[in-house]
Each structure stands twice: as C-alpha cells, then as structure tokens.
Design brief:
With 581 residues, the protein is mostly helical. Helices cover 60% and strands 2% of the residues. The chain contains 29 helices and four strands. Strands 1-2 form a two-stranded antiparallel sheet. The protein has a two-stranded antiparallel sheet with strand order 3-4. Helix 3 crosses helix 5 (87-112), helix 6 (118-130) packs parallel to helix 22 and helix 16 (292-303) packs across helix 19 (350-370).
Length: 581
C-alpha cells in the first residue's frame, strides 16, 4: 500500500496547483499556447486522425513543412495519446502529466542521489515541479515537456556513473525523448548541466581518492557522449528532416551575439524573479522563484558542511551566470560559440538554478531536521533574502516587462516577511510536529504564489472554438473555389472588433487578465493570425515561426513587400511590419 502513497501525493499536488486546468473547461488563451501551439497541434493531430504523417501545410508562410519542424512534437510518443482531443484539452492534459512527471523526477533525484528522507525529498520535488520556473513555462508546451525530463536525466546520469552499462542506454532514451518533444535548447541546457554535474563529481571523487582523476573524467565523458550518440540514432526520424530544413532556415548559420542575447535575464527584475509575486506577473522567462522558505532552505543547505551541496551549487552559479546574458560581459564571447549561438533567451539557463535550488532546499531541510541551527546562519540567510527583496525596488526601471505594479506592494512585502518569520521560528523552536509541518509551509507558500501565475488566468473555451465573422466569410469564399487564394491581414491589432462590452459582461466572473486575453484572442481570430489559419483551414501568406521556419527563401520574398528600412520578416508576423506607419 505504501508504494501508492508517492504517486498519489504527486498527482494530488499537481491537481491542487492546476485545479482550474484540471477541473474546469477553461483554457489557456494567450501567448505561445494560443497563437502558436494550438494551431500546430491542430494541424498535426488532424493528419494523425486521417492516418497520415503531418508532412506539410499550405496554410501558413505560403506553405511550410511540419514534420521537419520539431516544435509540434510530431514524433514525441506522449503527444500521440491526445490526438483525438481538441488542442486546448490535449495541451491541458500534457501540462498536468508533465508537471507531475517533473515533480516525481525531482523527488526521486533527491531520494536516490542525495539520499534524503521522504519529507525533504518531497520539499525538493515540490519546489522544482511546482515552483516558479516550470510554472512560468507551461505556456511553451514543448519546453515544459523537455524540462520535465531534466531531473530524470540527472538521476539516470548519476546512476550511470556507477553502472554505465545499465544506465547509459536509459540516459540515451531520455535525451531522445527531449529531442522529440521539440525544444532543442532544453536538450542543449540539459547536456551542459550533466557535463557540469559530471565534472564536479569527478573532482570530488579525486578529492576523496575514490578513483584516479583521468579515469573518472574519461568515464563520465564516454557515458555522456555515448548517450548523446545513441539518442541521435533513436531520434533520427526527427533529426534528419530537421537538419535538412535547418540548411534552408534563417537560423541555419546561427545568431550573431546580439541576437543570441535577446531576452537575457534583466538584473532589475532578478529580485522579482527569485521571489514569489502576489500582485503582478513578471515576464515569464525571468521567473524562477522557489519561495521565501524554499530559498531560505537552499541557503541553509549551502551553509551546511555537507559535500553533497557542491554539484548543485555549481549548477546554480552557472545557471545564473549564463542567464544574465547581455548583462554578463563574458557571455558576449560565449554567445558566438557553437551551441550557444543557436539559441536566444539566455534567461532559460535559470532552469539550472531551479533544479539546483530545489536539491539544496531538500538538503537544507534534512540538515535542519537533524541538527539545531546557529544564529550566524539565521543572520546570513535573513541578510541574503533581505538584499534580494531590496533589489525589487529597482523593478520600476523595467516596468514594461511586468504586468501589474513593478515594485512590490504591501501584500507582497507582508507575505515575504511572514514566510521569513515562519522559517526563523521553525529553525529556533523545532519539535516533532513542527518538523512534519515544514513541507506544508513550503508547499503552502508555493500554492499562494501560484494563484497569480498565468496558468490561473484562464478564458472560456469559446476563445478557441468559436469562429468570428471574418473566418466564416473566408471559409465560404474558399468553398466556392478548388484552389483557395491566400489571405494576408495587415494590422497591428489595435482595433475594437465591436463586441468588447458584450464579452466583458459575458466573462465577468473571470479575472481581468483572462478577459483581456479573451478579447485579444477574438481580435486575432478576426485577423486570422498569426498561426490561426492552421485551425480554420484558411491559407495565409503570413505566420509565426520562432524556430527553423520560415525559410530564408520566404524571408527574401517577403522583404520585397516591405518598405525600405524595415527589418526583414525572419520569424513571420509580416502583418505587423506592414501595419507600421
């Protein structure tokens, strides 16, 4: 019976945090989920239901490959389970499954590698799976899918260092699944993370005289390289067409350093991203909070004299170091190197902070449960958290990247203070009951923070399912022709479709942000943009890329349509450029 407790706890926590997605018919209706992934999943699953592979679509970019583009996750097996569902429900289920999988993986990583007891491992798993970083990336479903495999990759890699013959093939399978999920940057970050873990493990083994340095170094190198090569073979059906398309892509030669450093972690918002927000939403790529109590536990894990901390501390340091990107002078050199020059958004390196902080929080919780704390530790922890909190006063210098008040208000400061007081009280007045309450405190704080996350600003299902008048007109026009002409909307989206008041009244029971998302979604349906032509089968000249489509040929052709001096349409969104005054 006890073996069912672990999955039951993971599932229950996932359903608690994502109760709106799990128990209502409300849907995500903003950002990449709505404009990018819903349409891609609609086209992919329509082909699957017809018994075909989704090789090509005529409906965006005047024709574009689907199978060659990894972002739809065509060959990722978990995506096949939901092919009969509408995209909002398919992505809903995928989010729940992968959040639970990430939480379970982090818990097992803490149990098997750090040898933590059940309650500290639960804390580690909850902080990673239900914390800010993963929660802020549920809207990029392929990225969430890849990230869910990160703790499993670390777990299997750690086991492979002792039993390579048994676990290296399993590590290759995990790498292959990450590739097939469609977010190659996550694969790259995972590989670097495993390399750092293996390097620190090798150095520690040498310090303990457990094995010769060179032999241990070669061992972890062979394991990692062997797993990558085997993963490439397993994922060849996706990799081969993707590499072929990459040669035709705008990204075929990589980004220049300036492009590669786009969406670097803004230092003015670093404090906002590291601490939970209760009165605003920070730009999702900058969010990596683990909770005030979780951060305090991680700091306590660092202060503890336990050598197990070093692997995770290095991941934290490198993750933050890389995440600053543009604001880190050394990253200007890294951004031009192979691998680093293939991806934008250095802020995504914060996932190494997220997993490292989760493991250190578990280690700190275990240490705290077993030994009495010192006042010196309390002072250091309070000082560090105080400095991070004080840095949030600078957030108004990047207010355009915060939805709501950039500088925290009284509610947020009060909850931060209450969490820190609870932690200090726990450290000084421990009892058997209080020890058991620590996971409740950590998870409770994470849950309160989750209430302001985008995945709780859900819109009514008709935001996706109901067609607008322009869609009906274009479909009727195409019904009378054997070959439908292509549509090109030219608009920046700054218009009123005419029924805003009716929509506001209809959705009065939803949050203000949800109403805003539903209204914007209605306007995008009026424009049949950016990738919504895939949903409604209306051929378009335009589209939204972000990966290896559109091709460079598309960009060259559409540049002839743009006024002189405007940037070329590298990622699509031609309508926005043409709408500029």
């Amino acid at each position: 019976m006890r073996r069912f407790i672990f999955p039951a706890v993971v599932i229950s926590l996932t359903l608690l945090f994502f109760w709106k997605l799990a128990f209502t018919d409300l849907i995500l209706a903003r950002g990449d989920t709505y404009y990018f992934f819903y349409p891609l999943w609609a086209a992919r699953d329509q082909a699957f239901r017809a018994g075909e592979l989704p090789l090509w679509t005529n409906n965006v970019f005047m024709g574009a490959p689907l199978l060659s583009d990894p972002q739809p996750g065509t060959l990722y097996p978990p995506n096949w389970l939901t092919m009969m569902l509408a995209p909002p429900d398919a992505i809903r289920i995928s989010i729940l499954l992968h959040v639970a999988w990430a939480t379970a993986g982090a818990m097992l990583l803490a149990r098997r590698v750090l040898r933590l007891d059940v309650l500290p491992a639960l804390i580690a798993g909850a902080i990673f799976g239900l914390g800010g970083y993963l929660g802020s990336h549920v809207e990029q479903i392929n990225q969430l899918q890849g990230l869910a495999w990160l703790p499993w990759a670390l777990l299997v890699f750690a086991l492979a260092l002792d039993r390579p013959g048994r676990y290296t093939p399993l590590l290759a399978v995990i790498f292959a699944l990450q590739v097939l999920s469609g977010h190659t940057q996550t694969v790259f970050i995972t590989g670097v993370g495993l390399g750092l873990y293996g390097l620190v493990d090798t150095i520690q083994h040498r310090a303990q005289r457990a094995a010769p340095l060179l032999r241990r170094f070669l061992k972890f190198g062979v394991i990692l390289i062997g797993a990558v090569l085997l993963a490439a073979i397993l994922a060849i059906a996706q990799l081969y067409p993707t590499l072929e398309l990459t040669g035709l892509s705008n990204r075929g030669g990589g980004f220049n350093p300036q492009q590669a450093m786009a969406f670097s972690w803004n230092p003015f918002l670093a404090g906002r991203g590291l601490l939970p927000g209760y009165d605003a939403q920070v730009f999702g790529e900058y969010v990596a909070y683990v909770g005030v109590v979780g951060l305090a536990l991680a700091l306590y894990g660092i202060l503890a004299g336990d050598n197990r901390k070093w692997r995770w501390l290095i991941l934290i340091v490198i993750g933050i170091f890389f995440a600053f990107g543009l604001y880190n002078p050394l990253y200007w050199t890294l951004a031009g190197l192979p691998g680093f020059n293939l991806f934008r958004v250095p802020a995504r390196w914060l996932v190494l902070f997220a997993i490292g902080a989760a493991m250190l929080a578990g280690l700190g919780a275990q240490t705290l449960m077993q030994t009495r704390s010192r006042w010196r530790d309390l002072i250091v922890i309070s000082g560090v958290i105080g400095m991070i909190a004080a840095s949030t006063l600078l957030a108004d210098r990047a207010a355009n990247e915060v939805d709501g008040a950039a500088v925290p208000g009284i509610l947020t400061w009060g909850l931060w203070g209450a969490a820190l007081v609870l932690f200090i009280g726990f450290m000084r007045w421990r009892s058997s009951l209080v020890v058991k309450l620590l996971p409740v405190i950590v998870i409770g704080e994470l849950f309160l923070a989750s209430l302001t996350m985008p995945y709780n600003d859900l819109a009514a299902p008709e935001a996706y399912h109901d067609a607008r008048m322009s869609i009906h007109q274009l479909q009727a026009y195409c019904d009378d022709k054997s070959l439908c002409d292509r549509v090109l909307s030219i608009s920046g989206g700054f218009f009123d479709p005419g029924d805003k008041a009716a929509m506001t009244t209809r959705y009065a029971n939803l949050t203000e942000r949800a109403n805003r998302h539903a209204f914007t979604a209605a306007k995008m349906k009026e424009l049949v943009a950016p990738n919504l032509p895939l949903v409604w089968d209306v051929p378009s000249v335009d589209g939204a890329g972000g990966g290896i489509i559109p091709t460079s040929y598309y960009t060259q052709f559409t540049s002839l349509m743009l006024p002189e001096g405007l940037p070329r349409s590298i990622d699509g969104r031609l309508r926005e450029f043409l709408a500029l005054p």
